[in-house]
Structures are given as structure tokens and as C-alpha cells.
Automatic annotation (TrEMBL):
Origin species: Caenorhabditis latens
Cellular-component GO terms for this entry: cytoplasm
InterPro entries registered for this protein in UniProt: DUF167, YggU-like_sf
Family: Belongs to the UPF0235 family.
Lineage: Eukaryota, Metazoa, Ecdysozoa, Nematoda, Chromadorea
Full protein name: DUF167 domain-containing protein
PANTHER family: UPF0235 PROTEIN C15ORF40 (PTHR13420:SF7)
Length: 274
């Protein structure tokens, strides 16, 4: 009797001591968890999230590596909280062609491991690693890349219009003529146009097609970067920046008229709105 009671007690004791095995999740559950913990993910609201490990103090900002759980980014700024964060946002704007209000810190603003959320319809989650991995701070070099591919010459779109205006609007003397809102437009439109010309060069077969498609992209880039707002306050800056002979061509005039139609004839050209 005592032996039977001892065996029963021992069995109960062993059952309590042995931890039950956790049920193994389904493949779909494991995949969802892995995706949620990856370096680039989509949150519950459909925003794109970036898990970034920032490395301040570098000579220039760039993506060092895109790992499974984090994106390593060198930051061309001193390791001070404000300076490093500001430079990181500026770099992401340039690399991904985004506006400042489309980026926000979700976690880690005061640490080196950060989560940045992207809220825009203009960028898909699949495009982020492709763009970030190839992004170059020297944005205007893209026009020379296109020129080497098509050999359009000094009067062709890549050099005569694209590169020249890109360099003008990235010159600090010119940038200083704009208000903070105007500078946001300049940065946004430059990045948009560079991204567009690289895409155009992938499917175009001639210099004529490059020019035609590039001028079309100006309308979308300007409007998406809020030209209809900044044109009301940045008239003098634009007048001092553009070479107005560029607008004598039929293609350029078409671009101007398309933008004016969208903004409204009197939206940008009120004489006393400077």
C-alpha cells in the first residue's frame, strides 16, 4: 500500500516538475512574426517601418548594410542627439525621395537603435531596400550616368537641362535664397526628378524619348512636392535661380502650362504675393 502511494506521489511530482512543451506555431504565424521583426516592415496602419542602427561621426551619410533585423546607417554628423537625428532624417529624405513630414521617429530618438516610420503612398515596401542600397548623396551624378548610357551630347536633356539645373538648385548660394518651406520643395523635387530620370533611362531607347519622358516627370514631381503652395512665396527665389531661356522650348512650355493648370492661373502669379 505504501509502495503504491509512493509511486503515485512520485508520478504526480514529476508531472508538475516537467514543463509542458509550447505548441509550435504554424508556418504562417512564424512568417508573420519574422516579418514584423525584420529591418523593413509594415505596421498595423500600413506604414513602412525601418529599424535603423545609426553610426554617427562618419564622413558622409550612407547605408552600410541592410541586415535581417536592422539597417546599418553611417551618419555624417557629430554623435549628438539633435544633430545625428536631423542628419539621419535629411539622408533618408534624399535617399528615398521623401518629404520631411513623411518621416517620423517611432522609437529610439535618443538611442542608436531607432525605428523610423514612413507614411506615404509614393513608396512601396519592396522599393525601400533597392533605393536605400544604391542611394548616393551626390544626387546630380545620376544625370551623368544617364548621359554615359545615351550620349545625348551637351545640348541633350541629361547635361543641358537635368544636370545643370540639379547643380544650380543644390548650390548653397541658391538654396539660401529660399525660405525653409522653399528649401523643402527644392530638396523634394530634386530627389523626385533624379529618381524619375533613373527610371526613365531603364525603358527609354533614345535621347528624344529620355527628354520627352523627363519633362513629363517635372509636372508630377513639382506638384507632389507642393509647388502650388511654395510658388506663392518663393517667386523671387525662383526668378533668381532659373535660366529662363530653358522655357523657350515647346516641351518646357508644355510643362509650365500643365503645372499652371493644376495650381490655377492666379495661384502662383499674383503680382503682389511676393
Amino acid at each position: 500500500m505504501q509502495n503504491g502511494l509512493f509511486r503515485l506521489t512520485a508520478a504526480v511530482f514529476r508531472e508538475k516538475m516537467v514543463k509542458p512543451k509550447k505548441p509550435i506555431g504554424t508556418t504562417a504565424q512564424n512568417t508573420d512574426k519574422k516579418a514584423a521583426e525584420s529591418a523593413i516592415f509594415a505596421d498595423s496602419e500600413g506604414r513602412i517601418g525601418l529599424r535603423i542602427h545609426a553610426k554617427p561621426g562618419a564622413k558622409k551619410s550612407c547605408v552600410v548594410a541592410i541586415g535581417e533585423s536592422e539597417i546599418d546607417v553611417s551618419i555624417g554628423a557629430a554623435p549628438r542627439e539633435g544633430a545625428a537625428n536631423e542628419e539621419l532624417i535629411s539622408y533618408l529624405m534624399a535617399a528615398l525621395g521623401l518629404r520631411k513630414n513623411e518621416l517620423q521617429f517611432d522609437k529610439g530618438a535618443k538611442s542608436r537603435s531607432k525605428v523610423v516610420l514612413i507614411e506615404t503612398k509614393r513608396l512601396t515596401i519592396d522599393e525601400v531596400p533597392l533605393i536605400a542600397a544604391t542611394a548616393q548623396p551626390e544626387l546630380c551624378d545620376a544625370y551623368e550616368t544617364v548621359e554615359r548610357k545615351f550620349n545625348c551630347g551637351p545640348r541633350g536633356y541629361p547635361l543641358h537641362f537635368g544636370l545643370r539645373n540639379c547643380l544650380v538648385f543644390n548650390n548653397q548660394t541658391i538654396i539660401d535664397k529660399f525660405t525653409p518651406k522653399g528649401r523643402e520643395f527644392v530638396g523634394c523635387s530634386t530627389r523626385c526628378l533624379v529618381k524619375s530620370i533613373l527610371n526613365i533611362s531603364e525603358f527609354s531607347t533614345s535621347c528624344a524619348q529620355v527628354q520627352e519622358e523627363a519633362f513629363k516627370s517635372h509636372v508630377d514631381c513639382y506638384l507632389n512636392c507642393d509647388f502650388c503652395d511654395v510658388c506663392k512665396t518663393e517667386k523671387l527665389a525662383f526668378m533668381k535661380s532659373y535660366d529662363w531661356t530653358d522655357f523657350l522650348s515647346f516641351a518646357a512650355l508644355q510643362q509650365v502650362f500643365a503645372i499652371v493648370r493644376k495650381c490655377g492661373v492666379f495661384g502662383c502669379f499674383r503680382v503682389f504675393d511676393f
